[in-house]
UniProtKB/TrEMBL annotation:
Residues the entry annotates as binding heme c 2: 136, 139-140, 183
Domain of life: Bacteria
GO cellular component, one term: periplasmic space
PROSITE patterns given in the database record: CYTC
Species this chain originates from: Halomonas icarae
Keywords for this protein: Electron transport, Heme, Iron, Metal-binding, Periplasm, Signal, Transport
Record note on modification: Binds 2 heme c groups covalently per subunit.
UniProt name for this protein: C-type cytochrome
Subcellular location(s) of the protein: Periplasm
SUPFAM superfamilies the record matches: Cytochrome c
Location (main, coarse): periplasm
Signal sequence, start to end: 1-20
Length: 206
């Protein structure tokens, strides 16, 4: 656990300044033009009509830019995104990321199942020391806004289906673009019920 927390601290310090400069140069207006094709899956305002696709509105620009470039470069495989960003420059990635980051984030309503909510709250705010799972809030903040300087994404209002499938992909090693294996290590220790509980909790978190 201590080793993992140390990795988190190192990651924040290593990427912060560089991403701040790139984000400052991003052009949301240019990003709007490039993002036209994104609307089919992610919605015109970055709020996806389907739980299979993530909401992008209000997401950390640094995280979105990284995902776009990782998909473009083959470091993250998303079949539905095949060919979509192949011709994007780094600047294009940052411009589109800025466009969506500036949008109003989605607000969701969690399922009110008491046991599910309680387990989700426990994992998100305190983690599970017996399983070696740190609190989600350590990286994603207590309100789920994420930490842009560390490229940690916002989770607030995200679709439950997407959160669960993402955790499953990390746990299985099918997704491997997380810094220092952080999410792969955490997700591999979570049960299906844990994943469902966290996904439900962050849907209503703001």
């Amino acid at each position: 656990m201590r080793k993992l927390l140390a990795s988190l601290a190192i990651t924040i310090g290593a990427v912060g300044a560089a991403h701040a400069d790139l984000e400052a140069d991003a052009d949301a207006a240019a990003g709007k033009e490039k993002a036209v094709a994104c609307a089919a899956c992610h919605g015109q305002e970055g709020i996806s009509p389907s739980g299979a696709f993530p909401n992008l509105a209000g997401q950390q620009a640094s995280y979105l830019a990284k995902q776009i470039m990782d998909i473009r470069d083959g470091n993250r495989v998303v079949p539905q995104m095949a060919g979509q960003v192949d011709n994007f420059s780094d600047q294009d990635a940052w411009d589109v990321a800025k466009f969506f980051a500036d949008k109003q984030a989605a607000l969701g309503q969690a399922d009110d199942d008491e046991l599910l909510v309680e387990r989700g709250r426990e994992l998100y705010r305190a983690g599970d020391m017996a399983k070696g799972i740190p609190a989600c809030a350590a990286c994603h903040t207590p309100t789920g806004q994420g930490i842009g300087t560390a490229v940690y994404p916002a989770l607030s209002g995200q679709h439950t289906d997407y959160v669960v499938s993402t955790l499953q992909d990390f746990a299985a090693g099918n997704r491997a673009n997380d810094p220092a294996n952080i999410m792969r290590d955490i997700a591999s220790k979570m049960s299906d019920r844990d994943m469902e509980a966290v996904a439900n909790y962050v849907l209503g978190l703001h």
